[in-house]
């Protein structure tokens, strides 16, 4: 019996995966180091008891969108929610890209931008960043004007480098994107760890959206909940494309419950930023090249071969992300900021490994 073939344009595509190893200290997937407060879990449990499970959830997720919008002094018509920011990105591409259209990325950056482009039938085009991973603004503007992409992605803070795009840079790219009737997507999955946000640039008639996630800031990677902020006309179009009742009732309840603990979230973010600075200083002292980061992780190049250092860390039951084989990232590793104790163990292991050089 024959098997039906997949689409020709997907035949050679590999999936997006983050390899896992059974270790004591896992610092490879940019998760929050600690869970939300116990009060959050109790609030979600209470909400679950009140859900009418025999009924469909609120298709518009209006209560959740209203609560999120208040964080940014916006109305719910400017918020779109989905199953993680990846589904937000996919819905954007299904709506504004697709067959016969192109997307533009600046590499290295988040791999899902080009991956999702291919899955939705778009043609991803990549422009390289400078050697220090900063964006060459003139090259970016030239690319937008010549390629005329339907969707242009800027990841800020950028993953996997951690660099934050200056607001003037985002303004310049946005102006060029508007000239070619495109859409600029600023991916701020790690935005709360950075000093500024593109949210301040949102205007109803401007083709700009800012995507966010509950996974990092709100310590809710297990919930798979994300959202975007953008013009009301754009959100209306997304609602036409997304599957009906795509956001289940429990997820909506969890998202609402989290917003009761803004102070806890802010304190957690501040603690991670402080630990990030400590790790950066320690790695630099150990002779590593460390890139400045506005996220909850650090990209660094150790003074010994990255593959050897990665394996030596695994041998000590510590897992970081090995990016040494990724294009543009020769010899680099990426470490997520963990708890103070996890960070201590990581730095002690690094010191031990590098003493043998």
Would you kindly provide a written description of the structure presented here, covering whatever features stand out?
- By secondary structure, this protein is an alpha/beta fold.
- It has two domains: 19-36 and 263-355, Alpha-Beta Complex (Aspartate Aminotransferase, domain 1), CATH 3.90.1150.10; 53-261, Aspartate Aminotransferase, domain 2 (3-Layer(aba) Sandwich).
- The chain has eleven helices and twelve strands.
- It has helices spanning 38-50, 62-71, 84-96, 111-119, 137-147, 167-179, 232-241, 249-258, 262-285, 306-315, 340-355; strands spanning 25-27, 79-82, 102-107, 123-128, 151-155, 183-187, 208-213, 226-229, 289-290, 297-301, 318-322, 333-336.
- The strands form two sheets. Strands 2-8-7-6-5-3-4 form a seven-stranded mixed beta sheet, with helices on both faces. Strands 1-11-12-10-9 form a five-stranded mixed beta sheet.
- Strand 3, helix 4 and strand 4 (123-128) form a beta-alpha-beta unit.
- The N and C termini lie far apart (57 Å).
List the helices and strands and how they pair.
Layout: E1 25-27, H1 38-50, H2 62-71, E2 79-82, H3 84-96, E3 102-107, H4 111-119, E4 123-128, H5 137-147, E5 151-155, H6 167-179, E6 183-187, E7 208-213, E8 226-229, H7 232-241, H8 249-258, H9 262-285, E9 289-290, E10 297-301, H10 306-315, E11 318-322, E12 333-336, H11 340-355
Parallel strand pairs: 1-11, 3-4, 3-5, 5-6, 6-7
Antiparallel strand pairs: 2-8, 7-8, 9-10, 10-12, 11-12
Helix pairs in contact: 1-8, 2-8, 3-4, 5-6, 9-11
